[in-house]
């Protein structure tokens, strides 16, 4: 660290750049022009974000005692103190006993709503008032607290040079590096700040603002580096060479991984999502196939596609049952996690459908009468249409009612019956009896919810796989695949009318339940029972990427298909439509649905349903977090600077 003690000189992979005080900009026409140009966009952004700010303030007041806003003294240009405005995201007086402490990714001082605001960076919106007042700019080094800045100046004498310009809402350092964790990360960001100060200009500011948008959307670091251009390479102490396109895609679709996660589960979700898409595509575009749409091949494809939802139900049943049987669950925390897994993405799409219903009342499913409309919307918000038989606002959300019922009842049933303490044969016997009784109920009384049998089949599949995990033989896989083929074949024959029982309609329901149960049990055994061919196939990366965002894809693909189907009827004259339109529209619709769901996944699902889980096994972005072990004591800046420097630089590759 001696290179930081006398001058702001940083050694970069074979070259040295000196950024002394004489290189830093002073007041001039460019600075005055930059200041004049910020007023109009600042006022526009304040008005545009006012509803979001108001909503955030209300949520903070409802969920945490204390003021909604808070101010903090920061250092501005030339070291002049000013008060920065923020929405409060942490408990009141959370630093009373610790003093100034660097915030961490899963900071325990933040309350639940505050953590969401921090993930979305909505707590920074009031700083637009600081920009309007002239305390800050849109782009520049981030302002620091006086106490922390004084202690950092003791370790890095060039630290005060960053104060020669106005601090910013975002900056060259912020879009490339994680928050301050240790002295090494501070030095890295200081070097980037000094590079920005020396190269400041409208073009660089625009690049940084675009990179900030990518940062807020959690897009890969490589996207930001390419946007920033050559200055990004110069601002890194460690070579940040962007990865390949494959690496960039992997970063977009990556989610927190647990050590015991079965990769084939993610791939199977991708297959299930594709099958559901295909079912709806056939409904809208199958008419262009003409007479071929009624053939056995088309019916076979349509039948398999319509059972994509059964794969989703099987995966949920398999995983949730296994979770409940393996260990005692904290029921409240479990339901809370399920709530955050389902509702953020659902509410986003629900709001979109509600807006479209208002814009196109002719296509709306919402009743015209106000009281009936309120009841209908509340029923949809509670995810009940799948259980009550009411047509849902979002067609595919009928399955969410099944999922919700599973989450609420299964942990209680296993706990109250003591199934966790039973032997596996005992559980299999009881589950088989329950499945048989439910089959009789569906055949003789009501087939309305026959798909619940898929859950029971998934429970049985877990018991069969649990004792044989990792010991799947070629013969066992062949038997399971035979069961899958028989189940799918039976469902196809039933759909085509080749197998029927007009005198006993309930028998058709029973036959379908048996066929689907056999198929899903075979799929579970092949995919989750070991490292067989099916498991390896479903572990293919693109399938797993689609599986990771399958929930967003599931909710949005219908809207994309509807829009493209309407576009096809408008753009293609009736006399030119034919099978070619079906095959041409298939890839366009599929990749259009993938693109739309990717935006929802990155902007909402990944950030709210995955990023808020304080799981110690959650990996950081390996391209944005340096490999540094942080001592919690070092997050408090009240120890001797020389001791901090020695400890924090030891083992850090940035200072070797």
From TrEMBL:
The keyword Cell inner membrane does not apply. The keyword Hydrolase does not apply. The chain crosses the membrane at residues 36-60, 195-217, 271-291, 311-329, 341-360, 393-416, 428-446, 452-467, 479-498, 510-530, 551-574, 580-604. Residues 34-217 form the Bacterial sugar transferase domain. InterPro entries: Acyl_transf_3_dom (IPR002656), Bact_transf (IPR003362). Keywords: Membrane, Transferase, Transmembrane, Transmembrane helix. It holds the Pfam family Acyl_transf_3. Residues 264-600 form the Acyltransferase domain. It comes from the Bacteria. One of its GO terms (molecular function) is phosphotransferase activity, for other substituted phosphate groups. Belongs to the bacterial sugar transferase family. This is Putative glycosyltransferase. It comes from Limnoglobus roseus.
């Amino acid at each position: 660290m001696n290179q930081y003690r006398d001058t702001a000189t940083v050694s970069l992979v074979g070259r040295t750049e000196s950024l002394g005080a004489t290189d830093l900009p002073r007041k001039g026409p460019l600075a005055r022009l930059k200041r004049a140009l910020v007023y109009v966009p600042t006022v526009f952004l304040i008005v545009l974000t006012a509803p979001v700010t108001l909503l955030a303030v209300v949520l903070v007041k409802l969920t945490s005692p204390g003021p909604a806003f808070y101010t903090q003294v920061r250092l501005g240009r030339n070291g002049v103190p000013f008060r920065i405005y923020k929405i409060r995201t942490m408990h009141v007086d959370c630093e009373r006993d610790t003093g100034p402490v660097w915030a961490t990714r899963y900071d325990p001082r933040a309350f639940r709503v505050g953590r969401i605001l921090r993930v979305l960076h909505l707590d920074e919106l009031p700083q637009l008032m600081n920009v309007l007042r002239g305390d800050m700019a849109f782009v520049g080094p981030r302002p620091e607290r006086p106490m922390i800045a004084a202690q950092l100046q003791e370790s890095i004498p060039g630290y005060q040079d960053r104060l020669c310009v106005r601090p910013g809402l975002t900056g060259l350092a912020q879009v490339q590096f994680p928050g301050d964790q240790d002295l090494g990360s501070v030095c890295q960001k200081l070097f980037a700040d000094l590079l920005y100060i020396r190269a400041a200009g409208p073009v660089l500011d625009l690049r940084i603002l675009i990179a900030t948008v990518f940062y807020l959307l959690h897009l890969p670091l490589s996207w930001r580096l390419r946007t920033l251009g050559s200055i990004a390479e110069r601002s890194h102490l460690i070579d940040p060479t962007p990865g390949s396109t494959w690496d960039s895609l992997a970063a977009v679709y990556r989610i927190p991984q647990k050590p015991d996660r079965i990769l084939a589960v993610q791939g199977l979700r991708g297959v299930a999502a594709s099958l559901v898409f295909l079912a709806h595509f056939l409904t809208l575009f199958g008419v262009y196939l003409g007479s071929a749409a009624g053939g056995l091949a088309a019916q076979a494809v349509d039948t398999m596609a319509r059972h994509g939802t059964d794969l989703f139900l099987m995966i949920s049943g398999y995983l949730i049952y296994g979770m409940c049987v393996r260990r005692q669950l904290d029921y409240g925390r479990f339901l809370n996690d399920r709530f955050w897994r389902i509702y953020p993405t659902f509410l986003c799409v629900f709001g979109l459908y509600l807006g479209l219903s208002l814009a196109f009342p002719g296509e709306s499913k919402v009743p015209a009468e106000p009281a009936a409309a309120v009841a209908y919307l509340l029923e949809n918000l509670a995810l009940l249409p799948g259980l009550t038989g009411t047509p849902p606002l979002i067609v595919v959300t009928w399955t969410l009612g099944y999922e919700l019922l599973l989450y609420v009842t299964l942990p209680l049933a296993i706990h109250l019956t003591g199934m966790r303490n039973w032997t596996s044969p005992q559980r299999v016997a009881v589950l088989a009896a329950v499945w048989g009784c439910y089959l009789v109920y569906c055949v003789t009384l009501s087939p309305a919810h026959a798909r619940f049998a898929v859950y029971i089949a998934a429970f049985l599949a877990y018991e069969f796989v649990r004792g044989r995990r990792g010991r799947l033989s070629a013969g066992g896989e062949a038997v399971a695949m035979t069961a899958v083929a028989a189940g799918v074949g039976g469902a196809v024959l039933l759909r085509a009318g080749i197998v029927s029982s007009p005198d006993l309609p309930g028998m058709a329901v029973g036959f379908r339940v048996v066929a689907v149960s056999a198929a899903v049990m075979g799929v579970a055994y092949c995919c989750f029972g070991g490292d067989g061919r099916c498991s390896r196939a479903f572990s293919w990366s693109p399938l797993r990427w689609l599986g990771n965002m399958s929930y967003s894809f599931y909710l949005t693909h219908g809207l994309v298909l509807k829009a493209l189907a309407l576009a096809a009827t408008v753009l293609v004259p009736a006399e030119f439509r034919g099978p070619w339109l079906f095959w041409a529209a298939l890839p366009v619709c599929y990749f259009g649905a993938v693109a739309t769901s990717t935006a929802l996944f990155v902007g909402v699902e990944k950030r709210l349903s995955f990023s808020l889980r304080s799981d110690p096994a959650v990996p950081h972005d390996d391209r944005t977090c340096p490999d540094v072990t942080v001592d919690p004591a070092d997050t408090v800046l009240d120890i001797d600077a020389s001791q901090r420097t020695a400890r924090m630089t030891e083992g850090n590759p940035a200072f070797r």
